Amino acid sequence: IISDIRERGYEARRENSVTFDSWQRESIQLSPEQIDELIASLPTQVVDDITFVQAQVRNFAQVQRESMRDVEVETLPGVRLGHRHVPVDAVGTYIPGGRYPLTASAHMTIVTAKAAGVPLVIACTPPIRGEIPAATVAAMHMAGADEIRILGGVQAIAAMAVGTESIAPVNLIAGPGNAYVAEAKRQLFGEVGIDLFAGPTEILIVADETADAFTTAVDLLSQAEHGPDSPAVLVPTSAELGAEVIRLVDELLPDLVTHDLAGPAWRDHGQVVIADDVDELWRLAD
Q1: Helices 179-188 & 153-162, crossing angle to 10 degrees?
Q2: Pair 156, 136: CB distance under 8 Å
Q3: pTM
Q4: Residue 99's pLDDT is what?
Q5: Contact of 235 with 207, CB cutoff 8 Å
Q6: Alpha carbon of residue 105 to chain centroid
């Protein structure tokens, strides 16, 4: 796919979007009017939640950036040493979500790139079952993305890395994805910068008898729903708590929008391992 997009550009990108996402629109970049319409379709609570979360991420990112000070010193007459922090010209961000919108990736990539001072941030996310994910688009826009495209998978990573007739190549790609997205980033690393190689989402919770069973169950499911290969593990010191968490997970699963992902993850990779005491709890967690 990477070679195909490198050689044929837009046409290869379009064909792969049809093949993998059943996405046949000529233009994948959303206009300001389309973005406004999608945001207006969301409940006020969703927009308020995105606003709140992004403010937390942005505030700390700005504190981090302000701590990275430029310096220059004249060590000898005419000898000047120092360093400057200069943002790259363009970053491509990938917000996964072919099955379910994962808006948090927009906060973690676009907000931070803009706080760093990157002038151009291109954001890509796949359609979900043939529809544009309104909540994800809202998060991308509110985070400060300069261009928003409905484009997923390897074709998105390749298009941003090597460029097409309508997408200029970026300097760095950030954001998680499935195994194919991770492999595309691995192959393109060096030609373009990357943030990291992201593996499956996973969670391990350690809990004593004072833990709230419902909160624990929801925390496990909130990570299991990232994909059918996402491990969700609980290590409690209380067998009663472990049993209650299992009961709640089984009760909550059928009504989850993401049950087709969280269900297999919990069935195949979920574990509850009872520890006799706190010392064993930490050994098991390690």
Answers
A1: 20
A2: no
A3: 0.83
A4: 73
A5: yes
A6: 3
